[in-house]
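Protein kinase domain-containing protein
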Amino acid sequence: MTPPYENWCIHGGENFCLFINFHIRVVIPLVVRKMMASTAYHLWSMEDILGQGATASVFKARNKKTGELVAVKVFNITSYTRPYEVQMREFEMLRKLNHINIVKLFAVEEMHMNPKQKVLVMEFCSGGSLLNVLEEPENAFGLPESEFLIVLQCVVHGVNHLRENAVVHRDIKPGNIMRVVGEDGCSIYKLTDFGAARELEDDEKFVSIYGTEEYLHPDMYERAVLRKPQKKAFGVTVDLWSIGVTFYHAATGTLPFVPFGGPRKNKQMMYRITTEKPAGAIAGVQKVEDGAIEWSYHLPQCCQLSEGLKTQLVPVLSNILEADQEKCWGFDQFFAETTGILHHVSIHVFSLQQATAHRIYIHIYNTVSIFFNEVQRQTGMVPELQQYMFNGHYLFLNPSMKVVSLPLTTGDQPIFLISHQPEKIVGLLLREPETPVTPSKFDVVADFTFSKAIVGVIHQYLRIAQSLQKHQELILQGYYCYFENVRLECSNTEHRISMVSMKLLTFLNTEEKLHKLSQPSEDLADHTEIEKKLRQIQENLPIYIRDVQEFRNKLDCLRTELSRSSEILTKDKSTQKMEFLLEKITEVHKQYKKDRSEGKLNFNDEQIHKFEKINLSNNIKKVKSLLREDCSQKYRDVLTIAGKWTSALHDIQSQLKDLNSFFNQLIGELQMCEERQSQVLDIVTLRSQHWAGRQQPTDGLKDKDQMILRMNRLKDEMEAVAQELQCNNSIIESLGSLNAGPAI
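Structure:
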């Protein structure tokens, strides 16, 4: 007897399902056949669908002989209602295009059971589309800068190839930009779906309407979406508008023009926003029904692009998101500007006293003086105040140097910028993302939408926390190097004091010998005053040495504070905790996705759904608490102590600068004294020779030996003085080279 069906449950796999009765142990396999389709050379399952449009569907297929994965575009009945030349257009377009950033066409085949039904066999892009990438929660606020630059490069090169072949795409959007992961792990993006494409020279126009409404040029939108009759013809620049919307979407994660309720529900306002956009604006959002449009002239602070890249990108967006085709850039200017961006090199700079990270985009053939100016534009620090460190040493840059001579930098290993005067701390600008309101009622669709949005928001919270931690690491790393360089300045000053002390001692010893050799005269009168002054300086040298030692002791205290801060940072597990919470929140989102696909839940599943909603709210609160009370507070603590370090280091360097200035002046005076001693020695030598010449004829033989002995002694003493003077010269030269400092 067959058991009642209400006691049976179903467990399914891909190719079979099991009917299991809980009262008796009966397992009945039920084989489910896949619907297959094929051409002469390729085979695919109807379940392996990659995309679907109005006139065709795209499937993942395999070559029957080699097993190679391809994508097949199968046209439906609707496509055959179009004129024959329109049907053939995509085939012909793809045949003439051959570029790494264009999806490659392998063959045009026919369905096995219906030879009249055409199939395009194309390159399979395993990474999905750019739209799939943007729909990932971690990209809810836009792509990372490195990935965005890849998108920029691939789209620009791909569109340039279209233009070289006189092709206008007419439906550029993230869904029509496919992604492949190269052997080096980097993305390669490729334009696809040329069903709307046609050949068109720069000065030609077309009147037929294609495209996706959010990415459509306003003139085409008016005719295609609003159904308003018009006699306008459209040029190749309509692709530029679609490219602008696509780039903005990739950079920010959102569309640039959004009316209240969304573009699909408020079409009239959508058209108004795009046509009334002020010059220079790149986005317009209506947040309240019938409310004012909020225009944006900059990319949002929450996107992942650096200020350096934003500055380069905004002019491009503002000039291609231009409804008036007469005012819109042409392709030549678009390619020139975007190619210029792509040819820039980026130099990572961390302004230590301001605690801000920067990326300087600059042409590699520019000079360092232009680099200085760009640093000033981003930091407000004039070139005369800019000082740099790299790899723990001062980096001395000549304005005439080429940028190519600068060291390679990364976000983890930037060039540190230090001002010669104290700078106000700026720090990382914190702006928490807006959190969507939790649905108050049980609704699987609304809860899924909320959970999807909140996963993106939590990713942004995590990025902020990671940025705070990274900035703390850079602050501590930079100040450690700064401490060591100031310590080296102290050592150089101590060495200079020692050398000056030796020089003074030598000078004063020489002075005593000269006094013994010479008779008191007017030539030595002014020299006596100098000697008194130098003896006074010699007595004060120990005071200067103690001052420098105090600087060293102060630096030791600062290093102790830095070590303490480093230890706190090393033990900080805030980001790991946040990552754990993100995993929990993501698991709830995945469950809500299943709940939405099921539609109606049974009682038990509904209760689980509600409990998970409570857990979701609690975990969101924990993430916010971690950022506000833990990450942000520790970051502020480091900023506070870094401000004290800046003040202390500035004081030390100012006093070292005064000491070095004093010693430079003293070295000049010692050089003058040395010249004076040389003159005195010459005078003494001449007098001795003159005296010897007078005495020799009148002296008797008895005094001759004594005279020779005195002359030899005088000669030896003068030679000793001459050697000491030569030694003094060497010391002064060494002091001069020490004052010059090392160059890197």
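Residues 1-31, 197-211, 739-744 have pLDDT under 50 and may be disordered.
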